[in-house]
Amino acid sequence: MDTKAFKRTLQHSENYNRKGFGHQAEVTTQLQSEYQSSLIQEIRDRNYSLQRGNVTIRLAEAFGFCWGVERAVAMAYETRQHFPTEQIWITNEIIHNPSVNQRMQEMEVKFIPIETGKKDFSVVETNDVVILPAFGASVQEMQILHDKGCKIVDTTCPWVSKVWNTVEKHKKIDYTSIIHGKYKHEETVATSSFAGKYLIVLNLKEAQYVADYILNGGNREEFLQKFAKACSAGFDPDRDLERVGIANQTTMLKGETEQIGKLFERTMMQKYNPTELNQHFQSFNTICDATQERQDAMLELVQHNLDLMVVIGGFNSSNTTQLQQIAIEKSIPSYHIDCVERIKPGNAIEHRQLNGELAIAKNWLPADKIVVGITSGASTPDKVVEDVIEKIFTLKA
Ligand code: SF4
After folding, report:
1. Phi, psi of 139 (to 5 degrees)
2. pLDDT tens track for 187-202
């Protein structure tokens, strides 16, 4: 499919909207009352620190709702206002936050059902309205919806669209896109749907494996097995790694994306003549500012003397997991939770570990004076962070 031409057609269609409907003022008031917090504002005003009794809370200086998420949620609220009686669907969670998604359901915005691992678009009818979430949707999904003639409200974050444009550029000049991301993540699924040839690497270790293959060759079968779910159809490592461009899932660790870019730049310089680098390697900066700011603020926060950290965000939120990883690497006891209800009676907390499994930690709040570091992912409302902080104050009172 000519994805660029399709996108152009879609964007010119009268059924397509990516700018909202002019109800910003009403929606802003509603969002403020539902998601913002006066306690968080107070902590911000006190230089990101607040002491009550024997607890000091230290907030990261950048955390929570990013611009792209705020925009997507506002557009979803506007869509409900603009289409009060129509059936509204979302192709996926609007953002990775349980309380926001719960609110969508209360507003009778339904998720496209998943049947045996696949989304069932047969439920969508011609006059329905379908919202595409902040991390986008695959071009195939967009085409199904466009063909059905339903109204599409596209809240895809412009930063994500920037990555899609990057892989389109790679495709145009016949480069393979090396995407730093998680092959199952919706954003990466969407990005790869716009790419031509692509290979998805999860981390520096996988990137190094690919770089070694470029330089020294290797076991082709092992390569194909290793990336079976993470490459384009018919991908051939002996043919398709001569010209590569870098792209990323916007919420990966920015330092790692940069290292992966540099690794492939060095690899291509080593394999080919440095003067020919531009014929074998392309890199554009597609790291999202919000992800970068939150990770930088976390790196600053973990320099303080913290007794523990609480990282708040959806369990399938990639950027929240990256924040948690920073705390773990600093050997700070850190608990990733998605809502205050994870804090259980009897000084216990249910939290998500880096391997994705849930665990219960007992006696997680030490007696005596403590300093607790707090941050939250880009899809977490301040209200949820407030609930967690208030709970900690209450438990320690
Ligand atoms: S984290 Fe970045 S790319 Fe993702 S929605 Fe927010 S601003 Fe957009």
Report:
1. -65, -30
2. 999 999 999 999 999 9
Residue 327 near residue 298, CB atoms below 8 Å: yes
**For a substitution probing ligand 1, which of 67, 135, 157 has the most ligand atoms within 8 Å of its CB?**
157
Q: What pairing do the DSSP bridges indicate for beta strands 244-248 and 281-283?
A: parallel
Where do the H-state alpha helices sit in 272-381? 289-301, 318-329
Q: Identify the pLDDT of residue 117.
A: 83
For ligand 1, the distance from its centroid to the CA atom of residue 293, given in whole angstroms, is 11
Global pTM value: 0.88
Q: Measuring CA to CA, which residue among 176, 239, 174, 183 is closest to residue 213?
A: 239
| CATH of residue 183 | 3.40.1010.20
Q: What does the chain come to in residues?
A: 397
Question: Which residues, other chains included, contact 262 with Cβ-Cβ below 8 Å and sequence gap of 6+?
Answer: none
> What does DSSP say about strands 88-90 and 334-337: parallel, antiparallel, or unpaired?
unpaired
| CATH number for the domain that contains residue 90 | 3.40.50.11270
Protein residue with its CA nearest to atom 5 in ligand 1:
68
Could you report the per-residue pLDDT of 299-335, keeping only the tens digit for each? 999 999 999 999 999 998 888 999 999 999 999 999 9
Query: Which residue range forms the structural domain that includes residue 144?
Result: 67-157
Q: Are residues 230 and 126 in the same domain?
A: no
Q: Which ligand 1 atom minimizes the distance to the CA of 134?
A: 5
Same domain, 207 and 116: no
Q: Are residues 141 and 168 in the same domain?
A: no
